[in-house]
Backbone:
């Protein structure tokens, strides 16, 4: 069966690579980005590799934008099978907690945590209707409880909350064939990870693609890195 997948924040970095790997598995991939020009260019690069990749504008901060993407997906494909919540921002690297502003904390949560909330709200109903869904939240080991120390804390708290939301959703969807998992890609060479990071984007995307293609008896409500369980 031809699966339909949507990836947020996919104009660069790990998001583009997840699109590429899902496309290589034969899925129809909706590559989304907040910037239409950059997103269409990334989709075009993947289409040039022979992959079925469509572009849709999606800014995860905007409920109307999420709604538009949902309407397009349902109009064109009638369902969504795979949702990868990849879009994120890191605005407070190395900054101490009491030195961040309320605005920075809010902005970080709006993209990293509330964005996935909006996309899940938008797409879970069609997954329920078709009795299939694989939701992958791209988190970070910075979302682990043990990592909650006083630097980079807006980002860390937003990922901690994303992990919590993953568990809440998995419980709410228990008994359905919709699996929701969260994961850390590792330290990856992207604009966010920087050039000294350990992993290539190919390696960073691997666990996300594994979770996006879990069999019906696969896990839900888990936290993973390198295809292995990671401590909360
Ligand atoms: N790289 C690492 O070492 C690392 C480690 C742990 C976790 N992660 C996680 O992995 C995921 C991908 O990270 P990356 O390294 O590929 O980061 P990246 O290169 O900075 O890419 C982030 C992507 O998110 C998009 N984005 C930002 N705000 C958005 C919004 N409001 N709506 C839609 N898209 C938006 C960006 O679009 P623009 O180009 O328009 O800004 C970009 O496409 C993130 O969730 C990140 O937290 C990365």
Residues:
């Amino acid at each position: 069966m031809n699966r339909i997948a949507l990836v947020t924040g996919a104009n660069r970095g790990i998001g583009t690579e997840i699109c590429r790997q899902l496309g290589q598995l034969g899925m129809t991939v909706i590559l989304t980005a907040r910037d239409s020009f950059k997103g269409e260019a990334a989709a075009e690069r993947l289409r040039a590799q022979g992959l079925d990749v469509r572009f849709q504008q999606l800014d995860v901060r905007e409920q109307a934008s999420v709604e538009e993407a949902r309407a397009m997906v349902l109009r064109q494909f009638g369902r969504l099978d795979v949702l990868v919540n990849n879009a994120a921002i890191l605005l407070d690297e190395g900054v101490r907690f009491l030195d961040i502003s309320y605005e920075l904390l809010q902005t970080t949560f709006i993209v990293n945590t509330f964005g996935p909330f909006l996309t899940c709200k938008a797409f879970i109903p069609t997954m329920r209707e078709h009795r299939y869904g694989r939701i992958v939240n791209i988190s970070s080991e910075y979302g682990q409880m043990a990592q909650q120390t006083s630097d980079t804390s807006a980002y860390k708290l937003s990922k901690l909350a994303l992990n919590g939301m993953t568990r809440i959703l998995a419980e709410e969807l228990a008994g359905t064939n919709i699996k929701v998992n969260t994961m850390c890609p590792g330290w990856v060479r992207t604009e966010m990870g920087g050039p000294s990071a350990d992993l290539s984007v190919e390696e960073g995307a691997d666990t996300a693609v594994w979770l996006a293609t879990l069999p019906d008896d696969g896990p839900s409500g888990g936290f993973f890195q390198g295809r292995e369980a990671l401590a909360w």
